């Protein structure tokens, strides 16, 4: 899909009041572009991938608003968001997705997006989100989205930083997800049971859950990437009697 303009007006070149829509589904991109007319933007450019989007910015300057699909082909739109935020710090960025995985909004926020909207939500939600961003506010789900069931279309890779975890919390959480109880984690990491308990509590708080079972449910479909400074624990096996309480 090639870049196209709606409500073309040369004044946008001076004012920066144009919007950029990056979505590899042509009908979605066109629909969002038409939807944005109501916000008084001089131009709306819809493109299918990151390369076209950056080319558009190079030719027309920084957009006032960018709406980026989370999944662009096989890659994640979060990389595009980071580039836009670097090249156009004043641009307001909204991410959208048809994927209801609970990690999507977290990834969008961590990448620097100012808001996130599910494509399945009513048009009024997109309208409210765009209006909020143009006022300088942010727009994210008030409650976490549902976790993805095993075997979902995409596995979401998340770093400790994106989850708000310290490196040690991430390492402990990784072992919790493998089914290890606190005493086993303490022995493996050469920590006191009390310290492990504190790290587990901190990780659960960051995930917004209250139990180890809830954490396992929340992390379904998420591949936790441990920081480079954390020793790998890939060879660790959960004991048959591991407790999830």
From TrEMBL:
CDD domains: LuxR_C_like, REC_NarL-like
Presence of keyword Transport: no
GO terms of biological process kind: phosphorelay signal transduction system; regulation of DNA-templated transcription
Organism placement in taxonomy: Bacteria, Pseudomonadati, Pseudomonadota, Betaproteobacteria, Burkholderiales
Gene Ontology molecular-function annotations: DNA binding
Protein species of origin: Delftia lacustris
The protein, known as: Response regulator transcription factor
Gene3D superfamilies: 3.40.50.2300, Winged helix-like DNA-binding domain superfamily/Winged helix DNA-binding domain
Domain Response regulatory, chain residue ranges per copy: 18-134
Cell cycle found in the keyword field: no
SUPFAM superfamilies documented for this protein: C-terminal effector domain of the bipartite response regulators, CheY-like
Pfam family, one: GerE
Chain positions found as 4-aspartylphosphate: 69
Location of the HTH luxR-type domain: 158-223
Keywords, sorted A to Z: DNA-binding, Phosphoprotein, Transcription, Transcription regulation
């Amino acid at each position: 899909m090639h870049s196209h303009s709606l409500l073309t007006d040369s004044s946008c070149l001076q004012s920066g009041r144009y919007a950029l829509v990056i979505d590899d589904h042509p009908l979605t991109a066109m629909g969002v572009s038409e939807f944005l007319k109501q916000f008084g933007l001089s131009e709306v450019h819809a493109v299918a991938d990151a390369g076209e989007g950056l080319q558009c910015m190079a030719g027309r300057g920084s957009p006032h608003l960018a709406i980026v699909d989370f999944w662009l082909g096989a890659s994640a739109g979060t990389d595009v968001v980071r580039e836009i935020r670097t090249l156009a710090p004043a641009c307001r960025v909204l991410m959208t997705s048809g994927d209801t995985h609970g990690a999507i909004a977290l990834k969008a926020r961590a990448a620097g997006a100012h808001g996130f909207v599910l494509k399945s939500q009513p048009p009024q939600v997109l309208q409210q989100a765009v209006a909020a961003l143009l006022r300088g506010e942010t727009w994210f789900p008030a409650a976490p989205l549902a976790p993805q069931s095993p075997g979902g279309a995409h596995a979401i890779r998340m770093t400790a930083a994106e989850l708000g975890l310290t490196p040690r919390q991430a390492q402990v959480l990784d072992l919790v997800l493998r089914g290890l109880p606190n005493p086993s984690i303490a022995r493996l990491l050469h920590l006191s049971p009390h310290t492990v308990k504190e790290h587990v509590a901190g990780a659960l708080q960051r995930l917004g859950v209250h139990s180890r079972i809830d954490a396992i449910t929340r992390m379904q479909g998420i591949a936790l990437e441990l920081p480079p400074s954390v020793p790998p624990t890939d060879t660790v096996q959960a004991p048959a009697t591991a407790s999830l309480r």
